[in-house]
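Quick illustration, no need to memorize.
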Amino acid sequence: MQEILDYQTVFVNYLQAFSKEREPKNLYGPINYILQLGGKRLRPVLTLMSAEAFNCDYEKALDAALSIEIFHNFSLVHDDIMDDAPLRRGKQTVHEKWDINTGILSGDAMLIMAYQLFENYEPSTFQSLAKLFGKTALEVCEGQQYDVDFETRDDVTVSEYLKMIEYKTAVLVGAAMKMGAIVAGASKQDQDKVYEFGRFLGIAFQLQDDYLDAFGDPKTFGKQVGGDIIENKKTYLYLKAIQFLAPSDKVLLQQLFTVNLEDNVEKIETVKQFFISSGSAEETQNKIESYTNKAFSVLETLSIPEEKKLLLKQFGNTLMTRKV
């Protein structure tokens, strides 16, 4: 198998060839902008890795990988509008650089473009990819709605939160891997197993993202550090802190998550100290490791050579220890 950097390079070259100038510029310009902003390219790389793991030329999976990446970025454009986020990967969000209407319309076009890429496959493969994609896209929307609902609820449970991040983030990672297996013609059993591997990895990835939102380095994280705290999002860090804190501190933390301040620096620092002192920060890191190990357990049951399992495990370990 290729090295991870090799997959990223091949995919980025394919993406750049796809991102040509088209008319009208105010529709396609924002699309090319968000697609060229960079990012980890986690999902398309996993699609290519999965295809090759099942003895397929990974280049055959490039259209499926591109579809996943376009859909992921479509969801980011719309999420940023809903969150009124100023930055994405350290740059202006689409709706800030253009306007909200442009962000909505360009996002809509991206969703359609993602579906169109499946037309490059044989009918049976097209059908399998489209069926998985439709199911996954709807689950992502459900996850986003749960996320929005949780902002105004004060009774969100840990299990509800884990379900939300599974739908909003993890199912797309699982689908990315399963798409590679579908293109490769892997057995239904292996398709389902590699999906589970990706799903567990996706939950670990999102928990790590939550952790970095609070404790990451602004220079490398690419998003506004403390953004979840500012938006009063009940992340895993928050929910575990509520469980662990003494009653008086618990009330204070809950009060902090009911206010919106002009200057959030003090709020962010106070909340972070609660996360640390309660043991929530450490518990979150333990949970990240737990889900990563669950993914590795599923990986061991796949019908692929050991050296291919090793590369996928290496990728998982890289995600667990990332800083961006």
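The chain has 16 helices and two strands.
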